[in-house]
Amino acid sequence: MSLSRRSLLKAVAGGAGAFALLPILEQITRAGGAAPRRFLIVVEGNCYEPITVRDKKTLDQLNAHSNGAKVDDLRWWFQQTTHTSPLIVDDTQFDTTLALPALATEGLAKKAAVLFGLSSRITGGGHTAYHGVLSSSRTVGGIPGGKTIDAYLAELPAVRGMTPYDAVRVGTTSTVGVEQLAYYTCALDKGRAAACIVDALAAYSLLFGVVGSPAQQQEFAQRKTILDFANKDLSRALAAFGGSSDERKKLESYIASLEEVSKRQDVIQKLSGTLASVAPPSPDVDPKYATDCLYRFETQLRLAAASLKGGLTNVAVVTSGTGDDFNFLTYPSAPDPAYQDTIRHSLHHQSADDPGSLKTIHDVTRIQLDAIAAVAKDLDDTPDKGGTMLDNTLIVFIGDNGEQHHSSASDFPVVLLGGGGMGINTGGRTIVYPSVDKGGKGHRQVSNLWNTLSYAAGTPMDTFGQEGPTRVAPGPLAELM
Amino acid sequence: MLKRTRRVRRVIDVAVLGAAGLFLVHCHNDDQGSATGGPDREVGTGGGGGSGGGSCADPTFAPVVRLFATTCAGTSCHSNGPGGQFPPLVDEPASAWIDEKSHASPNASLVVPGHPEQSFLYLKLTGAQGPSGGALMPLGAAMPIAQADLVRAWIAAGAPSDCGAPGGPDSTDPNKLDQASLFTCPANHPPPSSPARIRRIDSPELTVSIPEALNGFNGQPGGTKGYLNPFRVLPPIAYSTYSLGQTIDTPTLDLYFEVLPEVARTWSHNDPATAGGFRVVGINDDGKIACMIGTGPKLESSPTDACIDTFLDRYLSMGLLFRAPTKDERAEYRQFLVTLLKNETDVSNRPATLGLFEQGAWLTAGALFRSEEGAGATDATGRTMLTADELALTLGGMLSYHRPGAAMLASGAGRFTAPEDPDDSCHPWLHLIAEAAKDGSLRKPDKIKELFRQYGGGTDPGGGPLACTKGTSGKRRDLGPEVDNRRLRQRGEYWLAPRIIGFFREWLGYAAGDTSFKDAPGRSSRFDLPGDPDRVTESTLDPTGLGFTRLQNQLSSENNLTSHLDDTIARVVVESAKNGKDVFEELMTTRTWRLPSDRVGLGTVSCDPAQNGPMGANPACGACTGPDSMCACNTVKLADHTKLTGCGVRSAALGALMARVYNLESIPDDEAARWVDMSETERMGVLTHPAWLSAHGDNFQDDASLVHRGKWIRERLFCETVPGLELVMVQAKLNARQGTFDAPPDSARDRVSQAIDANATCHGCHRLMNPLGLPFEMYNHAGFLRAWDKLLPDPGGKLTVLHTPDATSTIDNLPDQALDGAYQNAIDFARKVSKSQYARRCFIRQAFRYFMGRDETMADQCTLTAMEASLAQGSFVDMLATLAASDTVQYRTQGAAQ
User: Fold this and answer.
1) Inter-chain Cβ pairs, chain A and chain B, closer than 8 A
2) A389 CA to chain B: closest CA distance, Å?
3) Which of A48, A46, A74, A41 is nearest to A365 (CA)?
4) What whole-number distance in Å separates Cα of residue B727 and Cα of residue B877?
């Protein structure tokens, strides 16, 4: 069977899934708790360019506040703007952007916002900031400098609720079947990278194996048998262990992991009805899975969204070619056939002189945002406590290094979707924060965005990350609250 | 336009350094956040320990001292060392802090007893230092650390100063130990031991248990889940062998379940008859477990007790535990197996039954944690001895990922995972160690030395008959199918045990050279001369870069940079032992290197490349055979613009230009020619090898590679601590390049100098790194020898005049003062450092850390002294045998400080 990208996207959406979700939503309501607070963070490797998400009205504002030179066709402009307080552009004309027309066609305009001007120089920029973008810290030699926002959110009881997974981290790399895990983007703590599953088949098996193929279902069922045996063995081993407390902790930690996974088995089993209704098709049903990284990105995005819908987790991260992987990505389904075999690194380097390369970079961003918009639309069509699932889900799309291929980490464009039920005021606006070099105290940083997420999570914190003395201002982005 | 030509990509283990050169603006501790001891520290026991905090009148305040000792440790920040630029909080007793003034605010006292609000030390910890008071400390903290309250209480209590010297033996930084003392063995030194511990399995130990993983993906590692298992030890530990804190958390367990079915096929699907299948060698040659596995006539639908016991004992000893199980442990496995067999509906399901058993078994503590508890006898000092089984596994773990006595795995196609001992592929892995454990001889130092010499390294030129394998007697059978067969031919004949070569890879950090991104790797080399018609531009393919990229990624039939340095180091280690030469000196000065050929696949039949068809077919070349059968007329273009052509296998032609990173061309494709004596004006020792240079180089030729190289030298060659780079602020980056990419007016050293020299704050830390990295500016970021390092304008204003590379440096702050002085370049530096006893001792300390899986302490004085004596006789492997035979390995202290 061969499914088109569009049909697969539609397969995620739709009334049947929404209807099947009602039982778990009712459970949440009956439990008397607040509405779920969900987060879907999408990280693009080696940036997406600010110009792709800038509309005409915003361009007018930028030109009005430039240092004399027209912004017009500039792909990034942090060196041009001179304003010292945020520019707020209402009623963003998403249909005039290069990569966000889907927000208009999907009717999501009022639930979206675009942010410009947020810097994160603590991360270092460059080709990639690795874990830095999500941790507002510096990764050196592959070692994360701090906990990433997804890990922070995943630890909050108000976010975790009763979900079996604290977080689901998936992504895509330039190859398929070669790597399963990538450690470039997420971190549980300083020095402790968290794995993203970049093999969509593995992710599918892990998350939806309970309702997958007969073999996957059997594997899931048999897991209980071996977990019971392992639990028994570890209990025996620990009882017989006479070593120090530090050594004992190794076994105790493992036992705790076994117990958590065992309990999760039960929860997932109970969720299986819901999961069956929201599970996307297995990734390998489309031959493009093996060849097309854009398809794999959409696949992983669907898996992440389905994990949120199915109640498997309330925190999901989707990465696309983050870390070093951007250097190897090609886009076999890029609209311009002449560039389908060109690696991303070359596309960027050629883009100054070659309109085709530049257009391909921007096409990729549009395709990604089309997919994000489709997922958002699906969530918005799904009722949830107080509104829709999108209202209780904040989607963040951000690059992993800043505004350009060789970034100075001066301007991380951000697209936000949803989160209205969590106190996030998107409102169809574009907000241009004062620039890092000329904006003075009015400038804001990516760490302020992560502070904002902590507010949305119901557990405010004002100083996320390792900005230290370079922090411009604590607290959230007031314009979003 | 650069086209993607391959599907298989490397597995990136280590991220590249940032695109731009990055600098410290302040100092801080790498282990920040671990004021009570970082997670990567596991210290020894016995003499020299120290109680921490000295004799504080109020022990409540001992942690204050420890806070500064651990959080501010480092030679460059708050110390009295040569690099100390800030108040010396680490090396001075707390009493001295009272008289110290802030460097940022010279009128402010660090400590005013009884008045924390007047004490600059406290203000710096709380962010109340004011706008001229510099950064909040510890640097990088987003908010005041919790211990600030303790500091306040200590000062409020009058700052009691009898807490001893904070930087003493209680420091968790082993680099704070006095090296001369470490290599002195006092007559009354207490008997040494190590902490009793258990070690979680690490990634390669699991991989070697999975035949499918060993068979790889199209013959390459990385093709199966087994290679991607989640037991990789992640930074920031010093070495992958460190075990403290390494456990199995939930995310790891989740991912392990993805691997588990593959792990559990090893015995349950043991079927040599299946095409492409695999088998566990020798486990069923006697037919005694044919009642349990396979498809033969002896297979029992209801296995007897004897059958179950025979299978179980063989499985536990050769496939899972590699030791004798305890009585309870064995009973548990047996009961599980019996239960599964009872639930088996048909004997045809036996592979599934045993597969489930194996999955369960591979989740047990015995499979995933190896004991170094010391379950043997207790001696008069309270130490406990490792049992024979524990010792065998420990010694095996110092040599290999394979466990002593582990069954060998073979594929149905006849490829064996050959043993480290290439003369013996008839027995289980490291079987002589297993046998010595059984006969009681394993504790004898001479026996250990014999075993380490047997399994530690040697030469394997191939060619001899192999009695026990179905395969051919090719070279380097220690690598077996883990390396693409096509590349085995190109490997050198010298080999080292996996853990030993693993040490060199980790100590030198050169495996990262295979994955570090290099923009235009040939930039500034002689292959990149302005005016040269072959010179590349930014928007076109970089021929020097292409060769380099292939060396990184094994895209051709050649081996990569890591393999080249592996082979070069193996030769040094083996030949030094044979000839009684100082292995450290040889490592630092070797010029006999293993190089790639750019003739692989070139062929000898002349042809016209224009005749190549769309898939590479060329009429002159006829039909080829082999895995990639399409023939092509391959071309190698030389620096003098001449071209060589020849018919060869299409993919093999990708070897062209590979030797350019070594500043050479035309390396013939034959065994002897691949060992090249490098020019003594260009290369000398491992630190001038492109693998090391690129691993510790930045992304661009004019970036701050010298900082990264200098940092490595300071830390790994002189055992001093330099603060990490993660807190570098982007404002402290190198100046932006003026002009175009092709015409950068400043060299890397110019740009670094501009950013650092005038800034005293930056200079405080960078003076420890930059002078050590400057000699290596004769090479670019990828390890090419520079022909120029910047372009100067000619009279016409064009940037075409080459500036001669400047690799000079003046070093004045090394712990080995004999090395202080002026250097012309890296050759000069390598030659002098090779004679340094200080650097040599640091090398021994690094080896101790790797092979012990923990930091050294003063309790290890006598062991380190003995190791040094062994090394003096020339053999690195003998030095390891000395370590293995020492009480430090063989005795454990229960509940010792971790």
Assistant:
1) 257
2) 27
3) A48
4) 39
Q: Where are the alpha helices (DSSP H) in B440-530?
A: 445-456, 485-488, 498-508
Place of tokens 């391909």: A360
Rounded to whole angstroms, the Cα distance separating A244 from B88 reads 35
- Amino acid identity for residue B508 in this structure: L
The pTM for the full model equals 0.81
Q: How many angstroms separate the CA atoms of B708 and B826, rounded?
A: 15
Among B1, B40, B71, the strongest candidate for a mutation testing the A interface, having the largest count of A CBs within 10 A, is B1
Q: What is the pLDDT of residues B752-782, one digit of tens each?
A: 998 888 777 677 788 899 999 999 999 999 9
**Cross-chain CB nearest to B539 (options A324, A350, A407):** A350
Phi and psi of A182, rounded to 5°?
-135, 140
Residue A307 to residue B409: CA distance in whole angstroms: 39
Amino acid (one-letter) located at B129 = Q
Q: Which two tokens stand for residue B483?
A: 């390396």
Record: contact B230-A181, CB cut-off 8 A: yes
Give the tokens for residue B586: 């040889």
Asked if B515 and B552 count as a contact pair (C-beta separation under 8 A), the reply is: yes
> What residues in A contact B539, CB-CB < 8 Å?
349-350, 353-354
Pick the closest to residue A382 from A27, A110, A13 (CA basis).
A13
Q: In which residue are the tokens 């030890």 written?
A: B233
Predicted pLDDT at A286:
74
Q: Cβ separation of A349 and B373 shorter than 8 Å?
A: no
Tens of pLDDT, residue by residue over B79-127, are: 555 445 566 676 566 667 777 777 667 778 888 888 888 888 888 887 7
| Per-residue CA distances from A179 to A201, A280, B208 (Å) | 11, 22, 18
DSSP-derived secondary structure for B390-448: HHHHHHHHHH-SSPTTPPPEEETTS-B---SSTT--SS-TTHHHHHHHHHTGGG-HHHH
CA distance B26 to B766: 10
CB-CB under 8 Å, A125 with B20: yes
Residue A79: burial class (beta carbons within 10 Å; 0-12, 13-18, 19+)? middle
Per CB-CB distance under 8 Å, the chain B contacts of A256 are: 250
Whether the CA torsion A25, A26, A29, A30 is positive or negative: it is negative
Q: How far apart are CA A174 and CA A328, in angstroms?
A: 6
Number of other CB atoms surrounding residue A123 within 10 Å: 34
Query: Exposed/middle/buried for A68, CB within 10 Å: 0-12, 13-18, 19+?
Result: exposed
Q: In angstroms, rounded to a whole number, what is the distance separating the alpha carbons of residues B371 and B368? A: 10
Q: How confident is the model at residue B140 (pLDDT cuts 50, 70, 90)?
A: low
Do residues A285 and A180 touch, judged by C-beta distance below 8 A? Answer: no
Q: Which residues of A touch B853 (CB under 8 A)?
A: none
**Counting runs of H as helices and runs of E as strands, what totals does chain B give?**
30, 17
Burial of residue B477 (number of CB atoms within 10 Å: 0-12, 13-18, 19+): buried
The model's pLDDT over B848-861, given as tens digits with 9 standing for 90+, comes to 999 999 999 999 99
- CB contact under 8 Å between B251 and A194, yes or no, is yes
Inter-chain residue contact A175 with B725, CB threshold 8 Å: no
Rg, chain A, Cα only: 22
pLDDT in tens, B683-732: 999 999 999 999 999 888 888 999 999 999 999 999 998 876 655 555 55
SS3 B279: strand
Report how far residue A234's alpha carbon sits from residue A250's, in angstroms, rounded to the nearest whole number: 11
Give the three-state DSSP class for B3.
strand
- Amino acid letter for position A342: T
Q: Which of B29, B31, B81, B85 is nearest to B766 (CA)?
A: B85
Task: Return d(Cα A244, Cα B895) in angstroms, integer.
Answer: 4
Q: Which amino acid is at B423?
A: D
Distance, CA of B776 to CA of B778 (rounded, Å): 5
